[in-house]
Amino acid sequence: MAKPLFLVVLCITALGPTACCFHIGECQKPERKTALFIFGDSLFDVGNNNYINTTTLDQANFWPYGETYFKLPTGRFSDGRLITDFIATYAKLPLLPPFLQPGGSQHSYYDGANFASAGAGALVQTFQGSVINMEAQLKYFKKVKTWLRNKIGKSKSAKILSNAVYLFSVGMNDYLSLFVTNSTVQDSPQYVQMVLGNLTAIVKEIHKIGGRKFGFLNLGDLGCLPGLRILNPSSKNGCLEKASNLAKLHNIELYNILSRMEKELKGFKYSLYDFNSNVRERMDHPSKYGR
Protein backbone atom coordinates (compact mmCIF):
# COMPACT_ATOMS: atom_id res chain seq x y z
CA MET A 1 0.00 0.00 0.00
CA ALA A 2 1.32 3.46 -0.90
CA LYS A 3 2.47 5.56 2.05
CA PRO A 4 2.77 9.38 2.27
CA LEU A 5 6.33 10.11 1.25
CA PHE A 6 7.20 12.21 4.29
CA LEU A 7 6.32 9.21 6.49
CA VAL A 8 8.54 7.01 4.37
CA VAL A 9 11.42 9.46 4.80
CA LEU A 10 10.89 9.60 8.55
CA CYS A 11 11.10 5.83 8.69
CA ILE A 12 14.39 5.61 6.84
CA THR A 13 15.88 8.38 8.97
CA ALA A 14 14.66 7.01 12.29
CA LEU A 15 17.14 6.12 15.01
CA GLY A 16 15.11 3.06 15.99
CA PRO A 17 12.22 0.93 14.67
CA THR A 18 9.72 2.48 17.08
CA ALA A 19 9.87 5.74 15.15
CA CYS A 20 8.48 4.09 11.99
CA CYS A 21 4.75 4.49 11.53
CA PHE A 22 2.17 4.79 8.81
CA HIS A 23 -0.63 6.67 10.57
CA ILE A 24 -0.07 10.39 10.94
CA GLY A 25 -1.41 10.54 14.50
CA GLU A 26 1.11 7.94 15.64
CA CYS A 27 4.21 9.50 14.14
CA GLN A 28 7.02 11.05 16.08
CA LYS A 29 8.88 13.90 14.44
CA PRO A 30 12.66 13.49 14.32
CA GLU A 31 14.44 14.91 17.37
CA ARG A 32 17.22 16.46 15.30
CA LYS A 33 17.49 17.76 11.79
CA THR A 34 18.58 15.49 9.00
CA ALA A 35 19.97 17.00 5.81
CA LEU A 36 18.23 16.32 2.48
CA PHE A 37 20.14 15.94 -0.77
CA ILE A 38 17.77 15.96 -3.71
CA PHE A 39 18.46 14.60 -7.20
CA GLY A 40 16.32 14.10 -10.26
CA ASP A 41 13.84 15.71 -12.60
CA SER A 42 10.86 18.08 -12.71
CA LEU A 43 9.10 16.43 -9.77
CA PHE A 44 11.92 17.73 -7.55
CA ASP A 45 13.35 20.72 -9.49
CA VAL A 46 12.83 23.90 -7.44
CA GLY A 47 14.33 26.19 -10.07
CA ASN A 48 17.76 24.94 -11.16
CA ASN A 49 16.67 25.11 -14.79
CA ASN A 50 16.15 28.86 -14.40
CA TYR A 51 19.93 29.18 -14.44
CA ILE A 52 20.88 27.07 -17.46
CA ASN A 53 20.54 27.64 -21.18
CA THR A 54 17.45 25.60 -21.97
CA THR A 55 14.03 25.87 -23.61
CA THR A 56 10.76 27.08 -22.10
CA LEU A 57 9.62 23.43 -22.14
CA ASP A 58 12.20 22.75 -19.44
CA GLN A 59 11.53 25.89 -17.40
CA ALA A 60 8.72 26.94 -15.10
CA ASN A 61 9.55 30.60 -14.52
CA PHE A 62 6.28 32.02 -15.87
CA TRP A 63 2.60 32.07 -14.91
CA PRO A 64 0.58 30.15 -13.83
CA TYR A 65 3.43 28.30 -12.08
CA GLY A 66 3.66 29.20 -8.40
CA GLU A 67 0.41 31.12 -8.17
CA THR A 68 -1.24 29.24 -5.28
CA TYR A 69 1.55 29.31 -2.70
CA PHE A 70 4.58 31.41 -3.61
CA LYS A 71 2.46 33.96 -5.51
CA LEU A 72 5.11 34.05 -8.23
CA PRO A 73 6.82 31.53 -10.52
CA THR A 74 9.85 29.99 -8.78
CA GLY A 75 10.92 27.42 -11.35
CA ARG A 76 8.90 24.63 -9.75
CA PHE A 77 6.73 22.68 -12.18
CA SER A 78 3.73 23.20 -9.94
CA ASP A 79 1.31 25.93 -8.93
CA GLY A 80 2.48 25.38 -5.34
CA ARG A 81 5.01 23.33 -3.41
CA LEU A 82 6.68 20.09 -4.46
CA ILE A 83 6.92 16.78 -2.62
CA THR A 84 10.37 17.69 -1.35
CA ASP A 85 9.12 21.03 -0.01
CA PHE A 86 6.53 19.28 2.14
CA ILE A 87 9.13 16.82 3.39
CA ALA A 88 11.50 19.66 4.31
CA THR A 89 8.77 21.53 6.16
CA TYR A 90 7.70 18.48 8.14
CA ALA A 91 11.33 17.76 9.04
CA LYS A 92 11.68 21.39 10.24
CA LEU A 93 14.13 22.22 7.48
CA PRO A 94 14.03 25.34 5.31
CA LEU A 95 12.83 24.98 1.74
CA LEU A 96 16.05 24.14 -0.05
CA PRO A 97 16.88 26.63 -2.84
CA PRO A 98 18.14 25.58 -6.28
CA PHE A 99 21.82 24.68 -6.09
CA LEU A 100 22.51 26.93 -9.09
CA GLN A 101 20.81 29.97 -7.59
CA PRO A 102 23.16 32.98 -7.88
CA GLY A 103 25.18 33.59 -4.76
CA GLY A 104 25.27 29.86 -4.08
CA SER A 105 28.61 30.13 -2.32
CA GLN A 106 26.86 32.21 0.35
CA HIS A 107 24.32 29.49 1.12
CA SER A 108 24.72 27.01 3.93
CA TYR A 109 24.59 23.35 2.96
CA TYR A 110 24.20 22.00 6.49
CA ASP A 111 20.53 21.28 5.72
CA GLY A 112 21.28 19.74 2.32
CA ALA A 113 20.95 20.86 -1.28
CA ASN A 114 18.69 20.45 -4.31
CA PHE A 115 20.36 19.52 -7.60
CA ALA A 116 17.27 18.35 -9.54
CA SER A 117 16.68 19.50 -13.11
CA ALA A 118 13.45 19.26 -15.09
CA GLY A 119 13.93 16.99 -18.09
CA ALA A 120 16.91 15.16 -16.61
CA GLY A 121 17.24 11.41 -16.86
CA ALA A 122 19.62 8.77 -15.63
CA LEU A 123 21.34 8.76 -19.03
CA VAL A 124 23.60 11.61 -20.13
CA GLN A 125 22.07 11.60 -23.61
CA THR A 126 18.53 12.21 -22.35
CA PHE A 127 17.63 15.72 -23.59
CA GLN A 128 21.37 16.36 -23.66
CA GLY A 129 22.35 20.02 -23.62
CA SER A 130 19.00 21.17 -22.21
CA VAL A 131 19.17 19.76 -18.68
CA ILE A 132 21.52 19.10 -15.77
CA ASN A 133 22.18 15.40 -16.19
CA MET A 134 22.71 13.04 -13.29
CA GLU A 135 26.48 12.99 -13.68
CA ALA A 136 26.52 16.78 -13.38
CA GLN A 137 24.21 16.60 -10.35
CA LEU A 138 26.66 14.17 -8.75
CA LYS A 139 29.53 16.58 -9.43
CA TYR A 140 27.57 19.35 -7.72
CA PHE A 141 27.02 17.09 -4.72
CA LYS A 142 30.76 16.48 -4.51
CA LYS A 143 31.27 20.26 -4.42
CA VAL A 144 28.92 20.42 -1.44
CA LYS A 145 30.88 17.61 0.21
CA THR A 146 34.07 19.66 -0.22
CA TRP A 147 32.34 22.79 1.11
CA LEU A 148 31.20 20.98 4.25
CA ARG A 149 34.62 19.47 4.84
CA ASN A 150 36.30 22.87 4.50
CA LYS A 151 33.80 24.48 6.87
CA ILE A 152 33.55 21.96 9.70
CA GLY A 153 36.22 19.35 9.11
CA LYS A 154 36.34 15.75 7.96
CA SER A 155 34.66 14.11 10.96
CA LYS A 156 31.67 16.45 11.33
CA SER A 157 31.02 16.67 7.59
CA ALA A 158 31.16 12.88 7.30
CA LYS A 159 28.53 12.63 10.04
CA ILE A 160 26.19 15.00 8.17
CA LEU A 161 26.58 12.97 4.98
CA SER A 162 26.02 9.62 6.68
CA ASN A 163 22.92 10.85 8.54
CA ALA A 164 21.47 12.60 5.49
CA VAL A 165 18.65 11.34 3.28
CA TYR A 166 19.21 11.19 -0.48
CA LEU A 167 16.02 11.54 -2.52
CA PHE A 168 15.73 10.51 -6.18
CA SER A 169 13.07 11.03 -8.83
CA VAL A 170 14.57 9.91 -12.12
CA GLY A 171 13.87 7.68 -15.11
CA MET A 172 10.71 9.22 -16.54
CA ASN A 173 12.51 11.39 -19.08
CA ASP A 174 14.77 8.58 -20.27
CA TYR A 175 11.69 6.81 -21.59
CA LEU A 176 9.71 9.86 -22.69
CA SER A 177 12.64 10.98 -24.82
CA LEU A 178 12.34 7.84 -26.95
CA PHE A 179 8.90 8.89 -28.12
CA VAL A 180 9.09 12.69 -28.31
CA THR A 181 12.45 12.98 -30.11
CA ASN A 182 13.92 11.38 -33.19
CA SER A 183 15.78 8.86 -31.07
CA THR A 184 17.04 5.73 -32.81
CA VAL A 185 17.42 3.88 -29.50
CA GLN A 186 15.12 0.88 -29.16
CA ASP A 187 12.50 0.80 -26.41
CA SER A 188 13.65 -2.56 -25.07
CA PRO A 189 14.40 -4.33 -21.77
CA GLN A 190 18.08 -3.64 -22.50
CA TYR A 191 17.35 0.08 -22.52
CA VAL A 192 15.68 -0.21 -19.11
CA GLN A 193 18.82 -1.93 -17.83
CA MET A 194 20.91 0.96 -19.16
CA VAL A 195 18.77 3.50 -17.34
CA LEU A 196 18.85 1.61 -14.07
CA GLY A 197 22.53 0.80 -14.48
CA ASN A 198 23.35 4.52 -14.60
CA LEU A 199 21.13 5.25 -11.62
CA THR A 200 22.76 2.42 -9.68
CA ALA A 201 26.22 3.79 -10.45
CA ILE A 202 25.23 7.23 -9.09
CA VAL A 203 23.77 5.73 -5.91
CA LYS A 204 26.84 3.57 -5.33
CA GLU A 205 29.10 6.60 -5.74
CA ILE A 206 27.12 8.49 -3.10
CA HIS A 207 27.28 5.43 -0.86
CA LYS A 208 31.05 5.36 -1.30
CA ILE A 209 31.18 9.01 -0.22
CA GLY A 210 29.19 8.21 2.91
CA GLY A 211 25.49 8.21 2.05
CA ARG A 212 23.46 5.48 3.71
CA LYS A 213 19.77 6.45 3.56
CA PHE A 214 18.02 6.71 0.21
CA GLY A 215 14.48 7.38 -0.97
CA PHE A 216 13.17 6.66 -4.47
CA LEU A 217 9.97 7.22 -6.42
CA ASN A 218 8.87 4.64 -8.96
CA LEU A 219 7.34 5.76 -12.26
CA GLY A 220 3.74 6.55 -13.04
CA ASP A 221 1.90 5.25 -16.10
CA LEU A 222 3.97 7.15 -18.66
CA GLY A 223 1.92 6.11 -21.66
CA CYS A 224 -1.10 7.92 -20.26
CA LEU A 225 0.62 11.29 -19.98
CA PRO A 226 -1.10 13.85 -22.25
CA GLY A 227 2.05 14.38 -24.30
CA LEU A 228 2.17 10.69 -25.21
CA ARG A 229 -1.56 10.04 -25.51
CA ILE A 230 -1.66 12.24 -28.60
CA LEU A 231 0.82 9.88 -30.25
CA ASN A 232 -1.66 7.02 -30.00
CA PRO A 233 -5.18 8.44 -30.44
CA SER A 234 -6.58 5.25 -31.98
CA SER A 235 -6.12 3.03 -28.91
CA LYS A 236 -9.04 2.16 -26.65
CA ASN A 237 -7.97 4.39 -23.77
CA GLY A 238 -5.68 6.73 -25.71
CA CYS A 239 -2.56 5.63 -23.83
CA LEU A 240 0.72 4.69 -25.50
CA GLU A 241 1.18 1.08 -24.49
CA LYS A 242 4.90 0.87 -25.30
CA ALA A 243 5.70 3.68 -22.89
CA SER A 244 3.50 2.24 -20.16
CA ASN A 245 5.18 -1.14 -20.51
CA LEU A 246 8.62 0.42 -20.15
CA ALA A 247 7.51 2.14 -16.94
CA LYS A 248 6.15 -1.14 -15.56
CA LEU A 249 9.39 -2.95 -16.33
CA HIS A 250 11.41 -0.10 -14.81
CA ASN A 251 9.42 -0.32 -11.58
CA ILE A 252 9.90 -4.08 -11.30
CA GLU A 253 13.62 -3.90 -11.97
CA LEU A 254 14.13 -0.90 -9.67
CA TYR A 255 12.63 -2.88 -6.79
CA ASN A 256 14.89 -5.84 -7.56
CA ILE A 257 18.03 -3.71 -7.81
CA LEU A 258 17.38 -1.88 -4.55
CA SER A 259 16.76 -5.18 -2.78
CA ARG A 260 20.12 -6.44 -4.01
CA MET A 261 21.96 -3.27 -3.01
CA GLU A 262 20.50 -3.51 0.48
CA LYS A 263 22.22 -6.88 0.82
CA GLU A 264 25.46 -5.89 -0.90
CA LEU A 265 26.21 -2.36 0.38
CA LYS A 266 27.19 -1.84 3.99
CA GLY A 267 24.62 0.20 5.93
CA PHE A 268 22.48 0.84 2.83
CA LYS A 269 18.87 1.66 3.71
CA TYR A 270 16.20 2.58 1.21
CA SER A 271 12.54 3.33 0.78
CA LEU A 272 10.77 2.87 -2.54
CA TYR A 273 7.63 4.99 -2.70
CA ASP A 274 4.83 3.67 -4.92
CA PHE A 275 4.25 6.93 -6.75
CA ASN A 276 2.44 5.05 -9.53
CA SER A 277 -0.32 3.70 -7.29
CA ASN A 278 -0.60 6.98 -5.41
CA VAL A 279 -1.18 9.00 -8.57
CA ARG A 280 -3.66 6.42 -9.89
CA GLU A 281 -5.61 6.59 -6.61
CA ARG A 282 -5.96 10.36 -6.97
CA MET A 283 -6.99 10.09 -10.60
CA ASP A 284 -9.63 7.45 -9.86
CA HIS A 285 -11.00 9.14 -6.71
CA PRO A 286 -10.35 12.90 -7.04
CA SER A 287 -13.15 13.89 -4.66
CA LYS A 288 -11.33 12.19 -1.77
CA TYR A 289 -8.44 14.63 -2.27
CA GLY A 290 -10.33 17.88 -2.61
CA ARG A 291 -10.88 17.88 -6.37
From TrEMBL:
Name used for this protein in its record: GDSL esterase/lipase 5 isoform X2
Signal peptide bounds: 1-21
Gene: LOC107763229
Any one GO molecular-function label of the UniProt entry: hydrolase activity, acting on ester bonds
Assigned protein family: Belongs to the 'GDSL' lipolytic enzyme family.
Species the sequence originates in: Nicotiana tabacum (Common tobacco)
Keywords assigned by UniProt, alphabetized: Signal
Keyword Endoplasmic reticulum: no
Pfam families: Lipase_GDSL
InterPro entries with a match to the protein in the record: GDSL, GLIP1-5/GLL25, SGNH_hydro_sf, SGNH_plant_lipase-like
Keyword Signal: yes
